[in-house]
Amino acid sequence: MHIPVPMDRRRSRCRSARYRSALFGVMFSLGACLALSPVAAQPRDPRQTIGPTVADAPSAAYRFERFVIESADGRRRWRVTLGIALQRAPRHGFSALYMLDGNAALMEFDQALLAELARGAAPVLVFIGHDNDLRIDTAARTRDYTPSAALGEGGVRSGGGADAFAEAIVERIQPEVRRRVPLDRSREAVWGHSFGGLFVLNLLYTHGDAFATWLPASPSLWWDQGMLLGAPERGFFERKRQRPVSVLLMQGERERRPDEAGRDRGDPRVAAHLARIAAAPADATQRLAERLDRKRGAQACYRSFAGLDHGPMLRASVRAAAQIVAADARAPCRQGQAVSQLPKARGA
Question: What's the pLDDT band for 241 if we cut at 50, 70, 90?
């Protein structure tokens, strides 16, 4: 394992503050933030690089450092960027938010958000990205985030590396983060979007004791003909829980009502993509929340983001996840919607 020298050891005096904001205040702030956020689709250029981020600039609230983890065979490398609040650790340790697509997630943080988080529980921010400067490494994330290999464009099978990546997180990344920063393990949360959301759910099913709070956003439940909705989910329900878990599933309102107008169904690539995503109905995420909430030892809820489609949900959900963990990592459903308060999904 290669561990570079921390990026920035400079510390500035940071006045430690008690968290005074009620949850209503947190959600009001989040709503204002989302109202001002751009809702255009996320950039699709596979060559887009991350550029300078908050990790490269002085901050009055957080310091940043990095380390790199290699797979056992030395063929894969993941860059982990840590954001650590400039204040004394709580008695039982900091809360923490682990984020997949770490390079892309890091781009969505700014100094105002860091300052807001520091006024709350000041969670440790753990950005887990691939060890390059791409915003999103499409091929690597498909490999690492999917639980099975599936046919993609051109009839080529790809994916299926989720088990190996899960092992890297649980056995190597988490221990290294805990070695560097004192953490409260009852307040560790994990977030992922799209394929990342799929991975978070699969990790819950296979390593359910790794985190206390699970924040999958816009999970790609259609992957491999919806395989995660089959045997993996049934296995999770059959096993006894070792520790209580909270699950907040997030989805853009427009994802539930996909607009296919203007798509050229005569294009084989478009037709193939629409056929793949049809493996899971548009309300599959909400219905999954309803099922998970019936699992003993689990609390699950669902949150819809008004007016947002799949792409903008990366920014909206990762910022929401950070604010939720800063408020109370153990109670995400106070800030989501209890399943019992939701309109029933079709066929439920």
Answer: confident
CA distance 241 to 209: 8
Q: How many CA atoms lie within 13 A of 107 on its CB side?
A: 17
Alpha-carbon distances of 258 from 110, 216, 303, rounded to whole Å: 31, 19, 17
pTM above 0.70, yes or no: yes
The reply to whether 2 belongs to the active site is: no
Phi, psi dihedral angles at 301 (to 5 degrees): -150, 170
**Three-state SS at 277:** helix
Q: Which of 194, 246, 304, 317 is catalytic?
A: 194
Of 255, 290, 304, 317, catalytic: 255
Distance from C-alpha of 257 to C-alpha of 264, rounded to nearest angstrom: 18
Q: Give the bridge partners for 36, in sequence order.
A: none
Q: Is 273 a catalytic residue?
A: no
| Active-site residue, selected from the candidate residues 108, 290, 304, 310 | 310
Beta bridge partners of 251: 304
310 catalytic, yes or no?
yes
pLDDT in tens, 184-227: 999 999 999 999 999 999 999 999 999 999 999 999 999 999 99
SS3 readout for 118-153: HHCCCCEEEEEEECCCECCCHHHHHHHHCCCEEECH
Distance CA(161)–CA(167), nearest Å, equals 10
Calculate ∠ Cα 265-38-107, nearest 5°. 100
